[in-house]
Amino acid sequence: MTTDQNAALGQISYASDRLRPVRIWLYSLAAFVLLIVVVGGITRLTESGLSITSWKPISGTIPPLNDAQWQAEFDAYKQIPQYSVLNSWMSLDDFKYIFFWEWLHRLLARTLGLIFIVPFAVFLFQKRLPRHLAMPLFILFVLGGFQGFLGWWMVSSGLSELTSVSQYRLAAHLTAASLLFVALIYVARSIEPGRALGRVRPWHLVTAIVLGILLIIQIGAGAFVAGLDAGMGYNTWPLMDGALVPGGLFAMDPAWRNFFENALTVQFIHRTIAYVITGYVAFLIWRRNKDGGFGGVHGWLPRIGVLVLLQVCLGIATLLASVPISLAVGHQSLAFMLAGAVSAYIADMRRVK
């Protein structure tokens, strides 16, 4: 081994030791994003997202503290269509329940920014972050801040004409959250010490990236299902409205609207993408087993396969039970964890030399 190689190994070891707190921080951020997604799912399923009708980034962290403040918030809520059309029966106590979930969701989102920027500044001060890592992390911080804007942009869509938020904006908000989550996992995994084991060909990396893209698309499709309450109908499987391919998929004009606004079509698309992902993962596992098994980095594939099967079962159970909160939130969370596993698989393959 040459002197240069010895020096390189020493630098890798030193960097790995110094980056351990960074990895822990990034994995913690990813877990916190997942927590926000869980609370966001509950917020959506309890129709709580429009209970706070203003955006106050600083003062909004403090909930109403007395009867007058609670009444003011309730009076503001009474001005929007959701109250007058759907919830005019609500008492102040009922309002406090939905207010809590939206307030908690926003509080967690603000907290995420804090637990990102403070350690980031400390790591910069300690010179723990190399230049090639500092900029991607700063971009992730900007993406996290953009999530806050998307959240308010989503909420604002339901304050004047709609009785719920726009499914388009909900999909943008959830998809951006999934991108932030998988990026955190990828960066954390990519700075693991040492090299990953196994033989990786370009084909392996490309097929894993395709899988990751399919999962992000599916998460976005799931947001459209949630935004239209499309899971509340057609609660049978494998048939949908009595057929494998139901009628009425293109009942709206122009045709493109059906993909985003027709509850029947939106649910059918979500089911179809699930079948495609399941078949694709099965093919990848079959091909990998034929080509050399699951040693080293490819040990991720059978784990991903198990997660896909669990997700399919959970999705079917959620549908058949007419979308109870517990199953629906579990289904959404598992989708993020599945995407995170694929992101880790991709990162590990990039570490194989």
From TrEMBL:
EC number(s) reported in the record: 1.17.99.9
Self-association state and partner proteins as the record states: Interacts with CtaB.
Chemical reaction(s) catalysed: Fe(II)-heme o + 2 A + H2O = Fe(II)-heme a + 2 AH2
One Gene Ontology term of the molecular function aspect: metal ion binding
Residue ranges crossing the lipid bilayer per the database entry: 24-45, 107-125, 137-155, 170-191, 203-228, 268-286, 306-323, 329-347
GO cellular component term of the entry, any: plasma membrane
Essential cofactor(s): heme b
Record keyword Metal-binding present: yes
Subcellular localization: Cell membrane; Membrane
Membrane topology of the entry: Multi-pass membrane protein
Class of enzymatic activity (EC top level): oxidoreductase
Database matches in InterPro entries: COX15/CtaA_fam (IPR003780), HemeA_Synthase_type2 (IPR023754)
Pfam families: COX15-CtaA (PF02628)
The protein's name: Heme A synthase
Keywords: Cell membrane, Heme biosynthesis, Iron, Membrane, Metal-binding, Oxidoreductase, Transmembrane, Transmembrane helix
Lineage: superkingdom: Bacteria
Pathway of action: Porphyrin-containing compound metabolism; heme A biosynthesis; heme A from heme O: step 1/1
Functional description taken from the UniProt entry: Catalyzes the conversion of heme O to heme A by two successive hydroxylations of the methyl group at C8. The first hydroxylation forms heme I, the second hydroxylation results in an unstable dihydroxymethyl group, which spontaneously dehydrates, resulting in the formyl group of heme A.
Gene of this entry: ctaA
GO biological process, alphabetically ordered: heme A biosynthetic process
Family: Belongs to the COX15/CtaA family. Type 2 subfamily.
The keyword Oxidoreductase is annotated on this UniProt entry: yes
Chief location: membrane
Binding positions for heme per the UniProt entry: H270, H331
